[in-house]
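Input:
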Amino acid sequence: MEVNELLVFIHILGAIVWVGGSITVQFLGARAVKATDPAVMQRFGSETEWIGMHVFMPASIVVLAAGIGLVLKNNSAWDWEDPFVVVGLLGIAFSIIVGSAFLGPESGRVGKLTEEKGPGDPEVKKRISRLINVSRFELLVLVVVVFFMAVKPGT
Amino acid sequence: MSWFKFLLFVHVTATAVWVGAGVALEVVGARFDKAGDPAAAAAYGKHTANLGEKLFMPCSILVLVTGILMVLDSRWEFQDAFIAFGIGAVIVSSVIGAAVLGPLSNKLAALVEEGAPASAINVQTKRFLGIARLNTLLLVVAIFFMSVKPFS
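Output:
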């Protein structure tokens, strides 16, 4: 197996763990909100924070590193200015910043707040709704990146 | 955008949802198992059964159908090692999901609702997680074959 093939495998596997995991969190989050059980919502908040920091964050770094390695290894075919490379880098940067600066820490804070005030509290509801909307937008960005990576428009 | 590229996008996205969700659920399941909390085990069992029916099964069908259509629309053949292995892995994994993991997760939720002893719940959780891990491993090997395409 060549280095190039290994990098492709790592890049794809990292993206799968990251994007697929984020979609699962969306499904579980929608069910947790429906349940309106403080214990379930608190648990969901703390699990989302943990998985974001311990699984999604490392996976996103692996995707980025393997992607950079692939462009460097294939510099005769691909370039930093290629649309799919640019969109990929911007998408990853956006997601890493949003995930580490907002989604991860805010999930933990909302989980604790739900435990203290209950799921019916207006502030809890508002912050859960904001959390879900931001994570949905982030997921949409990731799916657009997957589209650019798979289809490679303009190349 | 060509038909082949569209199929590739759907194939990759559906694989990401299916396998990525499997990995995420295993990580969460392992944490619930460690915590030894029956309520968490019940919630986990219910969510997993629900995701299996509403997310994993449709995604696995989508992966299989788009994969077959891509072979028909390319120079690849069904006898190529990565395609034969991929189709085999998708079928085996779907059967394990529908015939083993789905009923096991339902049983786990039912055990907790009946108020079964913690030891029985733990045994069931460990059995579920063990089989789920093997299933995910099989899919990761399939992804390896798909991305590296050995023997072709």
